[in-house]
Write a structure and sequence with these properties.
164 residues; alpha/beta; two-stranded antiparallel ribbon; globular
Length: 164
């Protein structure tokens, strides 16, 4: 990898808006030139709570995430380092003991519901994308292949800016 700073894309949006589908489509298109860091893997480990109590947590709230670790991993990828991304078990509502290695690449995609929330993350981004789609539209786009096929519907569903 060259010494140049990776190009960082931040992709945010509401629950079921299609942000993950968009991020995965970009990652697939870019191949080995991209490192994808999904924020969903950075939920705090709640295994110490009884399962019924875990079901009551607001997983869309900033406190649900280990934002310090997510920011640290994003910064490490920008320095060219490998990170051990935690894996989250969505059936158990707890972190898995396993991790996944994510190697830095010329393009880094930071994706998640609150990825535009922390100033520390926004400062790292060269391109900020907010996927603005209701759950019904996004669900049908994911199943119909609209994201993969491109075209006019995609342009309606997201806006981006490269400034502040």
């Amino acid at each position: 990898m060259s010494a140049a700073k990776p190009f960082v894309i931040g992709i945010a949006g509401g629950s079921a808006s299609g942000k993950t589908t968009l991020a995965r489509a970009l990652a697939q298109t870019l191949g080995q030139r991209v490192a994808l860091l999904p924020m969903d893997h950075y939920y705090r480990d709640l295994s110490h709570l009884p399962f019924p109590q875990r079901l009551q947590v607001n997983y869309d709230h900033p406190e649900a995430f280990d934002l310090d670790l997510y920011v640290a991993h994003a910064e490490a990828l920008l320095r060219g380092s490998l990170v051990e991304m935690p894996l989250y078990d969505f059936k158990a509502y707890a972190r898995s003991p396993e991790t996944e290695r994510v190697q830095s690449a010329p393009v880094v995609i930071l994706e998640g519901i609150l990825v535009l929330y922390p100033e520390a993350l926004r400062r790292l981004m060269d391109l900020k994308v907010f996927v603005d789609a209701d759950a019904t539209s996004a669900s049908s786009a994911g199943s119909s292949g609209t994201w993969r096929n491109g075209g006019a519907p995609l342009r309606r569903w997201w806006t981006s800016t490269s400034s502040g």
